[in-house]
Design brief:
By secondary structure, the protein is of the alpha+beta class. It has ten helices and four strands; from the N terminus they run ααβαβααβαβαααα. InterPro entries: Flavin_OxRdtase_Frp, Nitroreductase, Nitroreductase-like.
């Protein structure tokens, strides 16, 4: 197993950082790594916001409710962005359309690939990271704080920084290979049920050992409960206001 695979397999989310800020060189290195990710048809339909203003970070923390959104080495926000394309088309005396579902998928995938490149680069430099999907708790306000124009919206954030002493996160086991990898034909749930049941028990044991028995829920229980609740219904409205999904 080479060093890159070891790094990827050792990923864990970190949430406590020292007060040391990332240097300009480090930020440029990380963003450069992000930009080296694959991009659909060379569209590059994303932007990366760096948030250093204390008041903006505080306001974004209030949306997220997570303290590490405010206290970190650097806060990145990944934005699906067709604004620049729209303006470039206007300069050329033409128009573009980005209101189809396919355009939305292109932007989300582009931004996500860039973010994962940045995350891997950061971890290779000894930094810790944590994705912040909770910026979508109020996606409209998050965009207003960052001054996003039509054609651009907040997808998620990512905090990065130097971990506090003793902060090494906790590595959560992922679903077993047999439940995720399907060769040629999709496997129905009954074909992998035993693997998922065994995984559920390991996750229950993991929580129990980390909380001295105060928590022992299973993965399937977690996701079923979460997905049974309607969440962030304002996202659809905001996307349409920004010019997405109108057709």
């Amino acid at each position: 197993m080479n060093d890159v695979i070891k790094l990827l397999n050792n990923h864990r989310s970190l949430r406590k950082f020292t007060d040391e800020k990332l240097s300009e060189d480090t930020i440029r290195t990380l963003v450069g790594a992000a930009q080296s990710a694959s991009t659909s048809s060379y569209v590059q339909a994303y932007s990366i916001m760096g948030v250093t203003d204390p008041e903006k970070k505080k306001a974004l923390r209030e949306i997220s409710t997570q303290s590490y959104v405010e206290h970190n080495g650097h806060l990145f926000v990944f934005v699906v962005d067709f604004y620049r394309h729209k303006e470039l088309a206007k300069q050329a005396g033409t128009e573009i359309s980005y209101d189809k579902t396919e355009n939305l998928i292109v932007g989300v995938v582009d931004a996500s690939l860039a973010a994962q490149n940045l995350a891997t680069a950061a971890e290779s430099m000894g930094l810790g990271i944590c994705y912040i999907g909770s910026l979508r708790n109020d996606i409209k306000k998050a965009g207003e704080i960052l001054g996003l124009p039509e054609g651009a919206f907040v997808l998620f954030g990512m905090v990065a920084g130097y971990p506090e002493l003793g902060e090494d996160g906790s590595k959560k086991e992922r679903l077993p290979f047999e439940a995720v990898y399907h060769e040629n034909t999709y496997q129905k749930i009954e074909e992998v049920q035993d693997d998922i049941d065994a995984y559920d028990q390991r996750i229950s044991d993991y929580y129990s050992s980390r909380t001295n028995g105060k928590r022992d829920d299973k993965w399937s229980e977690q996701v079923t409960e979460m997905l049974s609740k309607k969440q962030r219904l304002d996202v659809d409205t905001l996307l349409k206001e920004k010019g997405f999904l109108r057709q």
